Amino acid sequence: MESFSIETILMCFAGGLVGGALGGLFSFVICGLLVLAGCLIVLGGGSDFVLMQIGLGPVFGPHVGGFAAGVAASTYAAGVKKCHPGGAAKDILSPLMGTSWDVLLVGGLTAVVGHILVQVFAMTPVVNKTDVLALSVVATAILARLLFQKEMPWGNAKSITDIGYLKTDDRKISWVPWMLPLPKMALYGFGAGLLAAALAAGTKQVVDPLAAAGTISATGAFVVPLIMGWAIAAFSLIALQLGTGTIQQVPVWHCQAILAALSYMLFGNIILAGLVGALAALLQELMARMFWNHGSNHIDPPATAIAVGTLLLNLINININ
Question: What is the pLDDT of residue 321?
């Protein structure tokens, strides 16, 4: 699939329009399901098309219709059209089909912008050492905040002054308060990291021989161990989307999963990957306090942490090899 063909751009636009209508989180859950299905196809010796072009690509990747489009559409619906069904741009659970045609249009256009940003980031030195999909998710959310909420990336100045930049007002403005306090969060991150690293180790035993025999692509053989835990974690957020009350209080752990898996693939140590998972959980919380807690829209803490964490891990690997 050509990156800048008319067909690809139209796919981006269509996926973004659908993702905007579904809402940010529900479209992300679907993205996780598509990625998981793509992983299983590759593990069975099949094509990486569903994985790379649909679940992680221009059709419905997280940087296009599979999340970012819904975030930007939600920001526009709340900040400009004043027609968001939940009333607040941070509400990425509410579907936006019942809003207006231009809200859906913003979703489609955001997906096109997100796709173009990925191509630019991938060609930019140093920047291409991060997770360019995650970086695109963050970039379009910041752009939406600037354009539609007239607010800086760090959020509302009065809130920061009254509460303190990295403080939570006794969790009243916390992103996922049920994951606090920090020791519990770090412990969970350690466990999630171990699980993701174990998945990476196990799937590598399957995909490496298939790639060596030419049965599957080298890309698929690299991406499946990296993304398997992320996909499971993303799909698990269906409880947050469809549940109510305490049923919603599932962990948000796709950041821990992918950074721990990357750590295992770079350094080959499962215990180290568990520690990376713990640090990733804390990094995710730091990103929430820096960009989400005081903000008016959703700048995604996991995507921000994945972008930062991936860059750090790759730079560390380069410097020790």
Answer: 78
